[in-house]
Design goal:
elongated; 61% helix; 150 residues; mainly alpha
């Protein structure tokens, strides 16, 4: 039976450091394999969430840019540019995320979150915006793409 000095449900940092030490020392029989596997899976989920969040913020700002041309300014411009760069960087560093961009389910979830952000920040009703994302990924990421008012 393996003995762990630190519980996974206790001090997670102490547990993680202990697991790393056990790995480095080759003490594989003492590892908390199930929780290590969960933590590794969580790293992947965290990367996916970051991509989803960045895309939702980008889409929301493109919607605001399109629907509130009188409020366009440096702040929105900067946010759009930063999110485009962040998404491109994330996809370069983690190419396994690219297939997500091909699924309708992924786009529906990201678009729903973009609409939540845009309605909250503009005060507009959901009906003011398209039901589905009107732009292709390539457009969204194009540094020269700035949607015109409807």
């Amino acid at each position: 039976m393996s003995v762990h000095l630190h519980s996974y449900n206790g001090d997670i940092v102490a547990w993680a450091n202990e697991q790393a030490r056990l790995l480095r020392e080759g003490q594989f029989s003492q590892l908390d394999i199930e929780h290590i596997a969960e933590e590794i899976e969580d790293v992947g989920k965290s990367e996916q969430r970051e991509l989803e969040n960045r895309m939702a913020v980008l889409l929301a700002h493109l919607l605001k840019w399109q629907h509130q041309p009188e409020r366009q300014g440096n702040s929105w411009l900067r946010t759009i540019k930063v999110q485009r760069k962040g998404i491109a960087s994330r996809l370069r560093k983690t190419p396994s995320l690219k297939p997500d961009l091909q699924t309708e389910e992924w786009w529906e979830g990201v678009w729903a979150e973009a609409l939540n952000i845009a309605t909250r920040e503009t005060g507009f009703l959901y009906e003011a915006f398209p039901e589905n994302c009107p732009w292709a990924f390539e457009q969204v990421m194009d540094p020269d793409f700035w949607p015109s008012p409807p």
